[in-house]
């Protein structure tokens, strides 16, 4: 293995970077700092005009729970728009043909939509929560809290490593920038604007970055078909047919790249959907964004975001992997006259090479920009998530129970800096351990999945006992690790990076990690069931108040919270039903009704079908660009205009200040029947 890897790396090094190193440093350092300064400026403007003070914990961590549907949907897309999504969807498209990008997309959208069920349940049952772990602590006590801290930190660490490994390799390939330099410099700008702006800055940068990324991806959908070597979807189909005849895909029906009947593709799909359920449900960042949204924005925001997101890996992965396969034997392709090496493919270089093939240096620059935008945006969400764990769930709970608002903000800042540096160090260790994007893409579910069912049960099932909640994820992770390593040894005769990164061990290990905790939890809970009272969640006041807040009729807050809950309960339940219906429909559509008939029939795409497949994906992608770019502006136009007017006047009126305080104090409320939503 070592000799083959070295040869592959030598071959990979033979492809000269399309851009100078200076271009990469200009984007990673220069653009990163400029964006950080812009976000800091916007944060100051919002404080000056509408009173959004990031020195307050409620504002720093949850944006006073005032984020509307448009910005929520954009942030949801951004949270899942990892550099891995773009690099990985083209990687599996290159390996498995059209089945790969579809299963990649189908492994993402259903759980984003499903999260709306958990999000609205949290809004209904724990309206003042800041993190998932606060909910776990109230229900399962200290031991359960510590177990979930470990599970969530593992999830965040492995997610960030996956992002940085792929992004650094891609940036290095197009510019020659050293992988380690990229790994350490990418988090710098993120640390700066997240340190100052908190979750609101994350929402705003999510919006900007995602809009830029979707514009560039839409550019590829145009540029591909004005390239002489491709010219049309029909000709691209002919190139794919020729590629399948020259290099048949092992496990695909007739060796074709143009079929959903792909054994490797469906194995990847199973791994991917299970792993992504873990990545979403155990990512405290998704909960923070749900808590930051207004109650009436959670469900539509996550549903719209989940459906719109589907087009990005599906369209980009299908188009760019088709281009790579079709042009690999053309002089315009960077590796010509040879094929891409396994190391290049596993490092996620299919997308950069395809972009260079159709757009030259412009394509390389586009990849540099979207990779930078994607990794910094998603890294910001991860940094906020870990920061919330360090400040709320470790410092406030176990170090200083009487922590003031200022203390928690201080430790939130420490958490931002610490995790930004730690993630770079950890990713560098993995890089020198010869771990790449392909390996982490396949195995991460083994580590992220054990908490899926215990967490879902904690929010939705009152019978799960403390013993079941504590034991089931631990037993599930041990089961998953044992199955993963055992099957790797059984099938390949060794436990190594190469054997543990194969599809079969990762599929079995991920499935065991995901499903076994459900079995353990149900058995233990049924043996001695709990009967948790959801009202217990609202007995503890989770909001942090400064001294001036405490002086204001604090004795009435509990009564007001209870009356608000009763008034909103019916509306929250209605949103919960809508979320459940959409979640089921999304799963059935993306996993049953759409792909499985084609898989069972072993259908090989005809030219007209492939053209329609690609055109629909492109139209869907352009719709996603509208959702990410224009919907937040339309939805938030009233506040944008208000900020502009107040900026002209030089500051907020007393009425605006009072309204901001009211929003902060009424977290969790939604308009009752007959009232207009914000």
Automatic annotation (TrEMBL):
What InterPro entries does this protein's entry cite? DUR, Na/Glc_symporter_sf, Na/solute_symporter
Supply one GO molecular-function term. Answer: urea transmembrane transporter activity
Annotated region (Disordered) at: 656-678
One GO cellular component term, please give it: plasma membrane
The answer on whether this UniProt entry bears the keyword Transmembrane reads yes
Q: Which UniProt keywords apply?
A: Membrane, Transmembrane, Transmembrane helix
* Bilayer topology annotation: Multi-pass membrane protein
Record carries keyword Membrane: yes
Q: Per the UniProt record, which residue ranges are transmembrane?
A: 23-46, 66-82, 102-122, 143-165, 171-195, 207-226, 266-288, 300-327, 365-390, 411-433, 439-461, 468-487, 507-527, 578-596, 608-631
Q: Which PROSITE patterns does UniProt cross-reference here?
A: NA_SOLUT_SYMP_3
* Subcellular location, principal: membrane
Q: Which CDD domains match?
A: SLC5sbd_DUR3 (cd11476)
Q: List where Polar residues composition bias occurs.
A: 656-667
A Pfam family that the UniProt record links to this protein? SSF
Compartment(s) where it occurs, according to its Swiss-Prot or TrEMBL record: Membrane
Looking at the record's lineage, which domain of life comes first?
Eukaryota
**Which family is it part of?**
Belongs to the sodium:solute symporter (SSF) (TC 2.A.21) family.
**Protein's name according to its UniProt entry:** Probable DUR3 - Urea permease
Organism equals: Cephalotrichum gorgonifer
């Amino acid at each position: 293995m070592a000799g083959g890897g070295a040869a592959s790396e030598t071959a990979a090094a033979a492809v000269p970077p399309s851009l100078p190193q200076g271009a990469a440093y200009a984007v990673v350092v220069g653009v990163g700092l400029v964006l950080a300064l812009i976000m800091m400026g916007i944060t100051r403007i919002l404080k000056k005009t509408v009173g959004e003070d990031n020195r307050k914990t409620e504002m720093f961590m949850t944006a006073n729970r005032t984020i509307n549907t448009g910005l929520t949907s954009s942030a949801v897309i951004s949270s899942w728009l990892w550099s891995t999504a773009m690099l990985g969807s083209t990687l599996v498209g290159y390996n498995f043909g059209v089945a790969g990008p579809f299963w990649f997309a189908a492994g993402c959208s259903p759980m984003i939509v499903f999260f709306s069920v958990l999000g609205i349940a949290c809004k209904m049952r724990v309206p003042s929560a800041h993190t998932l772990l606060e909910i776990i602590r109230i229900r399962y006590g200290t031991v359960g809290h510590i177990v979930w801290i470990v599970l969530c930190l593992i999830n965040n660490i492995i997610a960030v490593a996956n992002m940085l490994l792929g992004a650094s390799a891609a940036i290095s390939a197009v510019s020659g920038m050293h992988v380690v330099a990229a790994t350490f410099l990418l988090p710098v700008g993120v640390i700066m604007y997240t340190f100052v702006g908190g979750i609101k800055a994350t929402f705003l940068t999510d919006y900007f970055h995602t809009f830029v990324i979707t514009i560039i991806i839409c550019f590829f959908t145009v540029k591909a078909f004005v390239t002489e070597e491709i010219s049309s979807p029909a000709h691209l189909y002919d190139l794919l047919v020729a590629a399948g005849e020259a290099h048949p895909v092992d496990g695909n029906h007739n060796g074709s790249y143009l079929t959903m009947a792909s054994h490797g593709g469906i194995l990847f799909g199973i791994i991917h959907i299970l792993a992504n359920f873990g990545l979403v449900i155990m990512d405290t960042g998704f909960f923070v964004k749900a808590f930051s949204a207004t109650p009436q924005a959670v469900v539509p925001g996550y549903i719209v975001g989940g459906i719109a997101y589907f087009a990005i890996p599906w369209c980009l992965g299908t188009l760019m992997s088709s281009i790579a396969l079709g042009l690999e034997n053309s002089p315009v392709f960077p590796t010509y006259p040879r094929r891409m090496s396994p190391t290049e493919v596993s490092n996620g270089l299919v997308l950069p090479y395809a972009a260079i093939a159709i757009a030259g240096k412009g394509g390389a620059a586009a990849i540099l920009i979207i990779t930078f935008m994607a990794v910094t945006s998603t890294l910001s969400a991860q940094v906020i998530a870990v920061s919330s764990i360090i400040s709320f769930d470790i410092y406030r709970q176990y170090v200083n129970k009487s922590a003031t608002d200022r203390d928690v903000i201080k430790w939130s800042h420490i958490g931002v800096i610490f995790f930004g540096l730690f993630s770079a160090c950890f990713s560098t260790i993995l890089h020198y351990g010869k771990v790449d994007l392909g390996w982490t893409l396949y195995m991460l579910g083994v580590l992220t999945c054990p908490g899926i069912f215990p967490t879902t049960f904690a929010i939705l099932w009152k019978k799960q006992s403390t013993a079941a909640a504590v034991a089931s994820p631990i037993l599930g992770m041990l089961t998953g690790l044992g199955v993963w390593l055992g099957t790797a040894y059984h099938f390949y005769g060794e436990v190594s990076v190469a054997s543990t990164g194969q599809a079969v061990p990762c599929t079995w290990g991920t499935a065991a990690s995901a499903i076994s905790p459900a079995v353990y939890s149900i058995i233990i809970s049924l043996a001695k069931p709990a009967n948790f009272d959801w009202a217990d969640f609202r007995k503890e006041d989770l909001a942090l108040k400064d001294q001036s807040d405490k002086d204001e009729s604090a004795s009435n807050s509990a009564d007001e919270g209870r009356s608000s809950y009763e008034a909103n309960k019916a509306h929250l339940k209605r949103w919960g039903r809508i979320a459940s219906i959409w979640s089921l429909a999304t799963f059935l559509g993306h996993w049953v009704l759409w792909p499985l008939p084609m898989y069972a029939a072993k259908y090989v795409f005809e030219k007209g079908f492939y053209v329609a497949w690609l055109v629909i994906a492109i139209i869907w992608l352009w719709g996603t660009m509208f959702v990410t770019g224009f919907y937040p502006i339309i939805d938030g136009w009233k506040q944008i205009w208000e900020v502009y007017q107040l900026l002209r006047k030089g500051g907020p009126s007393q009425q605006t200040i009072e309204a901001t305080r009211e929003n902060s104090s009424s977290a969790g409320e939604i308009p009752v029947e007959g009232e207009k939503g914000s």
